[in-house]
Amino acid sequence: MAVDTVRAPVELTAPARRTRSWAGLWFALPFLLIYVVFMIWPILAGLWSSLFNTSLAGGDVEFLGLSNYAEMARDGAVWDSLWNTVWFTILSTPPLVLVGLGMALLAHRARRTGWLLRFSFFMPFLLPVTVVALIWLWIYQSDFGLLNAAVAWFGGDPVAWINDERTAMWAVVICTLWWTVGFNFLLYLAALQGIPRELHEAAAVDGATPAQRLWRITLPLLRRTTGLILVLQLIASLKIFDQVYLLNEGNAGPITRPLIQYVYEQGFTSYRIGYASAISYLLFLIIILVAFAQFKIFPAGRDD
Amino acid sequence: MSAAACGVPSGNDRLRYWNLFGGGDGVRMVELIDAFAASRPDLDFQASTLAWGPPYYTKLSMASAGGRAPDVAILHLARLPSFAPGRLLDPFPPELLTEAGITPDRFLPEIWDRCVVDGQVYAIPLDTHPFVMYYNTELCEKLGLATANGDLIPLRGPDELIAAWAEAKKLTGGYGLVLDNFGVSPWRLWWTLYRQLNGDLLNPDATALVIDDAKALQALDFMRRLSVTDAVAPGQMLLSGAVALFGSSKAAFLFNGEWEVTTFQTQKTPFSMVPFPEVFPGTAGPGGIARTQADCHTFVLPHQRGRTVAGTRPAIDYVRFMLEHSVDWAAGGHVPAWLPATRSPDYLALDPQSRYRDAAAVAQLDPKAWFSGSASNMENLAGAAFGAVQAGTATPEAGLAQFKADLQRLIDTPAPV
Known about the structure:
Chain A has 304 residues and is mainly α. Helix content of chain A is 70%, strand content 0%.
């Protein structure tokens, strides 16, 4: 899962003089060029090739109109993979937000051990995905894995955690939780440190219990952060690919295969770049809708 | 390994080679690569090993599509149609093959024929790797299934075989037979059984499904018997687990490709190997060897813009060197494709590697299609559908229906090559 950079709201002030606006353009140009070449152009090229039977193996290209999209609608594997992605998002988002919040509250309270908690909670996030997958492969490994050693100690039968359809998705969720919750933790911790102490002190003087202060002061003041985390998390979860691919050694079965892996399979294993582009646009549309919904629900700039 | 294995078109003293041998056979490949490099100090030679399966094939096809591929590479023979011979692959210059003595009479005709497309040679076979049966010699002696010198007594037909595995299960207390129920392994087992029943899957140009439902179900029923009805084998085991159980003598039999030889030799497991048993009689080849799923590693010339005959010469030298050293390669389990090697005393002295050599003559490769072959879409889809039958979560009928639907979808997809 990639971490999207959080962009600070840009101050839009009208340039005082025409000459200054030209200077601004020159400063922005290097970025703009890279943005157009690596972002806008691929997006348009992808949309264009989704209308053709473009093949990675080369050969003649034929215009298909919308038939890639029609095939997608009939292709059960697209919808199964999309459901896997959505199911992963449903399962992973609540714990990633709640555990992150819990850890932040804990680390914020702890005075002497705070640095240790901050370090331990955030450290897994610094690991590259390959390392994370390797660690969890050894935990989940069905014959010599750590988890099955524990199961055996309690007298249970070994479980194929990554391959059994009852546990496979949970295995991915738990691995992801361990790996990425540190980022949400960090955002929450920063927000907690931004809450003025006076509010808590005043409430305490008025006789508010710690539970009341949590529910009435802390959580409401964290609302904007929660909104931000939620949307970042939803987008990141919808883009899931790396962990599943690596945990399954490149061959996730139909139980956990996310939509992006299906795009990869169609585009690169089966050379069908045109069809893969069409499927990508389905995911693109869904992510745009989620982001749009977030802007409706949590309008920027409103502080309540 | 090198990241700079592609790029500039080959000069005449430059050789870039890609392969996918990362396992036990990879160690032997590196030894042979080193030996070749030492014998040809005049060449600028670099060999790269990439991850097996889709990652390898993705990289190779993209490099070939761009015309800046390595000079020579490994390809599974059954994947040849998916590599669009003529577009992603360049043909071998016939004059160089003749000069190097790489001629059709030195390979099995069934294998060589698949290397030729439109009258041109696109692949040179290195080996055949059949699906085989490993057995634990000590356990089988105790069961009266093997003679004192470790030879397995002939076992034939579903009931006789299952009875033997049931006895073995009683002895080990766990499983009689172990196998892998995930990935492409269920395909390998099913295709072996289905071909023993002489079933066909696709028409010659892969435009129609010609599956024989009764035979397909007969094969699936047998697979279900193994793990569900008679329960002599696991239904949800990974390859690593199956290998570990067999390696530690906790199971008496193992179905797998022959490449695990080195693993068990290193572990000092008392074991030997035989060709896959004749579950369904009637189609066995010479010597009573039953049909078995297989694929072949071959050398190919990935497409390069501006490839010349002279520039291809080092690649041919390398291929010839590897064929001559087939016996060293065979120690890792694979059956040499180079017939002079299979007749050599050094190869025949390899035990158990030479015991299943006749399986190469009855090797059943995947049907020809752009979506078949080792690590292909078809094998993975079959693995998922048939794996569910072995796990007991789908009936043979349901598993077959799913596979047929998946396969039909592949057939209906316009070929991208």
